[in-house]
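Holo prediction. Input below; ligand is calcium ion.
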Amino acid sequence: MSKSRIRCEIDLDKPGLQKGYLRLFHSTHASAYGFIPIPIMTAANGNGPTVLVTAAVHGDEYEGQIAVMKLFRHLDAKAVSGRIIALSATNLPAALAGRRVSPLDDLNLNRCFPGSPDGRPTDQIAHYVESELLPRADFAIDLHSGGSSLDYVPSTLAHKPADKAELERMVALMRAFATPYAYFVSQPMGEDRTLMGGARRAKVPVLGTELGGGGSLSVERARIAAEGLVRALAHLGVLETKLPPPKVKTKILEVAADDYYVFAPARGMFEPLADLGDHVEAGQPAGAIHSQEAPWEEPRTVNFTRGGVVLCKRHPSRTERGDCLFHLGSPLNS
Ligand code: CA
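Structure of the complex:
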């Protein structure tokens, strides 16, 4: 890959605790020689794995951003064995705007991998993560949630590995993170254009999360995110923690095919007929779409085409044909 044009203010390979910025130069009318300052933090000490932690790949997902901030504010490098490299606001312009996509180029960072050093700002961030950070990592944790348009039962997720031992190692890590649910995906959304896709190219195992959503936070979800991140890093051997073992026994599911998803069949107001965490059957009504233009017409109903647990639900009521309304998970068939 050609070299990134982004300059890192800190030496990623130096021991100790470091905080600084990635300088993504962006010459505008208001700032001819200015850069976009993407915060980067490292904590390195002794021997151990390097874990890359990313949050705000989507700027309207807050659980992970706050979890990374809480981790680093009072982190003592002596509690680290190996190295943690963290980006609390991977797509900073999107994070400052509280939007999924960057206001600078309207691009979704998680559809830009492997990126380009000569592309628009979001392409350049993807390229930096893939060419400079993932090659340094032994493991990656990419913290997401449902953002503005989706709401999730707090979950962790990973690509389903073919190798049984690899799958069991990932299940153990999911249990350490201790969200109520975890799931394996066979055909991830965004295919190989995501950070997870980049991690697969770099042969770096990666744990993803969907910690909540709705463009908001709750007491419970913020706690799950912060404690889960610390416990996962401890499980990977890179961080000491005094946290007690989790009380939650994570249910392990999979999202194995297209029929796990329900999409809106029409434009209108989406009335959900199932809630997060519900167990549903094939043929059960999922939602009714009410037309605001023809209020006297019966709503269009849409059914679940298979059974499972409701992991994800559309957050706003207004919907367009083609929007994702739900996705399910089913018990892992390993
Ligand atoms: Ca996301």
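Helices lie at 63-73, 92-97, 121-133, 164-177, 195-201, 219-235. That is the main takeaway for now.
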